[in-house]
């Protein structure tokens, strides 16, 4: 998943419009954010920094690299996440687990087929 997709997921999770998201970053209009979301621009460092300052509950590792949960955990001092955000985190983890399970199942099926072919010889 690329940063454009993660930004869209974040905006969706925050349940705000792109324009409101842009305004929280100090932008008057949403053009810059729209261009980022559609892949015409890549977010610059200052934009990422503004996002993390405006939304301290966002996990920087997730935003930058797609690693971990979208929102920080409860034991983080600046987390301040809501129950709804925790539910989104759980949903995201379940989605990741389902993807991994599907990949493991495909690998398992391939290995079984190879083993069956070897036994047939």
> Rg to the nearest angstrom?
19 Å
Count the strands? 0
Low-pLDDT parts are none
What would CATH call the architecture?
Answer: Orthogonal Bundle
Mean pLDDT: 86
Kindly name the structural category.
Answer: mainly alpha
Largest sheet: none
Tell me about this structure.
The protein has six helices and no strands. It is mainly alpha-helical and about 120 residues long. Helix 2 (about 20-25) packs across helix 3 (about 30-35). The protein has one domain (about 5-120): 434 Repressor (Amino-terminal Domain), CATH 1.10.260.
SSE topology sketch:
Blueprint: H1 3-14, H2 18-24, H3 31-37, H4 45-54, H5 60-65, H6 83-120
Protein name: HTH cro/C1-type domain-containing protein
Keywords: Coiled coil
Organism: Fibrisoma limi BUZ 3
Summary keywords:
HTH cro/C1-type domain-containing protein; 434 Repressor (Amino-terminal Domain); 121 residues; 0% strand; coiled coil
Concise structural overview:
The chain is an all-alpha fold and 121 residues long. It is built from six helices and no strands.
